[in-house]
């Protein structure tokens, strides 16, 4: 057990020492002497303060010292030390769709997982696995597990560093240093605006274990536009859509999808985009952000359309059970979703593009459109350059455990227990003092 505020322990020790000193000063009746007259005899018992070579009232002193030390320990924020070696490792395992070989990445994570350390798995979110979950997943024994299973969602490094830093503070108790290990392909889309700031919160270096990335090749994606409008505003933007990532086909339907559209979207590598044309609603200045291989923000006069489920899901998969949000309005409302359909997927877009104007002729709209024609699950881009990886890794030194533990939270149950014991000691001290006075 260690303490986050050891100064309170020092104060408690000083208070206990003061109690011992006071118990060395005792009051006693002076020796009897014959007086020439009775007028000098005091009305009450005559007592004088004298020094003693040993403390008096040892039981009372023990209660006072115990109460002072327990109060100081409770306010010193006690924490339980985690068991394990002096140098521990926190491993962050990327199990998103960016990883080309998820089983190989899991094996590399197993090799770097130390006793007393922690394992954090992440894709769009991150969480720390408990000891029981690690044993169940087979990470200790090397048995293939569900952690090895690939995920379609992309990885987000910011979420991994947040949970990894919190896990590092926990395992730092009782250790000398903590290593942070990142097993990931470090794809470009895994970085966002907060990655650098969250990384800097870790007070040490990061050991990078780069695994092969699942990279989609850049190619011209076949896009078919199904629209009743002779001059659909999407047509000019689609004509400029030269390069995209992924070996897939896209069909954009501007009306209600038909049964043929449903059958087509269920085939492998097929993406059906249900993007209705807006009605007579008036467009208002608004902003929307699409989350693709690179986030694209569009700020322009737009119409908010309602989102529905245009096609039925396969049997056994309820509607919306695996739906993911791929675009949001600036107030956080959902602007576009993606749902799986057999081996393909369906995207529902609620961003109405006005029929008049030059919005679809601008570069921001081209970037926004590119995110909506990515393959199912999102496109996977290239890995970051070596210079970006070196900045992420920083130095090679492990983080100081005392520095990490200083940011940890105290164990509330320990503090409550110590306060309760201190109250018991104070109650016993009060009872002994009353008996002594009597």
Mean pLDDT equals 80
Helix content: 25-40%
Number of helices: 12
Strand order of the largest sheet: 11-13-14-19-18-17-15-16-20
Roughly what fraction of the amino acids lie in strands?
Answer: 15-25%
Describe the structure concisely for a colleague.
The protein is α/β, with parallel strands linked by helices. The protein has helices spanning 6-24, 58-75, 102-112, 131-137, 157-171, 195-200, 234-239, 259-265, 363-372, 386-393, 401-405, 412-437, and strands at residues 2-3, 25-28, 48-51, 78-79, 87-94, 118-122, 126-129, 177-184, 206-210, 218-219, 223-226, 244-245, 249-253, 270-274, 284-290, 296-304, 324-329, 334-341, 344-349, 351-352, 399-400.
Descriptors for this entry?
single chain, 438 residues, Rossmann fold, nine-stranded mixed sheet, six-stranded mixed sheet, 21 strands, elongated
Please outline the helices and strands.
Layout: E1 2-3, H1 6-24, E2 25-28, E3 48-51, H2 58-75, E4 78-79, E5 87-94, H3 102-112, E6 118-122, E7 126-129, H4 131-137, H5 157-171, E8 177-184, H6 195-200, E9 206-210, E10 218-219, E11 223-226, H7 234-239, E12 244-245, E13 249-253, H8 259-265, E14 270-274, E15 284-290, E16 296-304, E17 324-329, E18 334-341, E19 344-349, E20 351-352, H9 363-372, H10 386-393, E21 399-400, H11 401-405, H12 412-437
Parallel strand pairs: 5-6, 5-8, 8-9, 11-13, 13-14, 14-19
Antiparallel strand pairs: 1-4, 2-3, 6-7, 8-21, 10-12, 15-16, 15-17, 16-20, 17-18, 18-19
Helix pairs in contact: 1-2, 2-12
């Amino acid at each position: 057990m260690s303490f986050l505020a050891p100064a309170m322990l020092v104060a408690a020790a000083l208070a206990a020492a003061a109690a011992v000193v006071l118990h060395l000063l005792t009051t006693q009746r002076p020796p009897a002497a014959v007086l020439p007259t009775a007028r000098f005899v005091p009305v009450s018992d005559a007592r004088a303060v004298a020094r003693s070579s040993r403390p008096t009232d040892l039981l009372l002193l023990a209660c006072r010292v115990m109460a002072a030390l327990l109060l100081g320990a409770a306010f010193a924020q006690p924490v339980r030390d985690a068991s394990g070696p002096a140098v521990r490792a926190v491993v962050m395992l990327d199990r998103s769709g960016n990883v080309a070989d998820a089983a190989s990445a899991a094996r590399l994570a197993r090799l770097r997982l130390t006793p007393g350390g922690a394992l954090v798995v992440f894709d769009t979110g991150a969480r720390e696995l408990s000891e029981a979950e690690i044993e169940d997943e087979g990470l200790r024994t090397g048995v293939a597990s569900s952690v090895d299973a690939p995920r379609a969602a992309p990885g987000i490094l910011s979420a991994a560093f947040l949970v990894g830093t919190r896990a590092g503070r926990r395992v730092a108790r009782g250790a000398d240093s903590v290593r942070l290990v990142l097993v990931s392909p470090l794809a470009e889309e895994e970085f966002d605006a907060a990655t650098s700031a969250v990384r800097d919160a870790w007070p040490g270096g990061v050991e990078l274990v780069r695994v092969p990335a699942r990279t989609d090749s850049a190619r011209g994606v076949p896009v078919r536009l199904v629209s009743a409008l002779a001059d659909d505003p999407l047509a000019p933007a689609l004509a400029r859509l030269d390069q995209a990532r992924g070996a897939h086909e896209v069909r954009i339907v501007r009306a209600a999808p038909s049964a043929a559209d449903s059958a087509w979207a269920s085939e492998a590598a097929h993406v059906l985009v249900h993007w209705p044309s807006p009605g007579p609603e008036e467009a208002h200045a608004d902003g929307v952000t699409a989350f693709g291989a690179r986030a694209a923000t569009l700020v322009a006069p737009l119409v908010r359309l309602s989102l529905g489920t245009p096609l039925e899901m396969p049997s056994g998969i309820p509607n919306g059970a695996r739906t993911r949000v791929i675009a949001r309005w600036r107030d956080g409302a959902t602007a576009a979703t993606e749902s799986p359909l057999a081996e393909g997927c369906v995207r529902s877009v609620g961003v109405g593009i006005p029929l008049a104007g030059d919005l679809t002729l601008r570069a921001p709209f081209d970037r926004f459109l590119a995110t909506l024609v990515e393959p199912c699950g999102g496109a996977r881009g290239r890995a970051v350059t070596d210079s970006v990886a070196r900045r992420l890794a920083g130095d090679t030194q492990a983080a100081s455990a005392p520095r990490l533990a200083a940011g940890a939270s105290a164990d509330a149950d320990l503090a409550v227990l110590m306060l309760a014991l201190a109250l018991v000691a104070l109650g016993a001290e009060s009872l002994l003092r009353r008996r002594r006075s009597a």
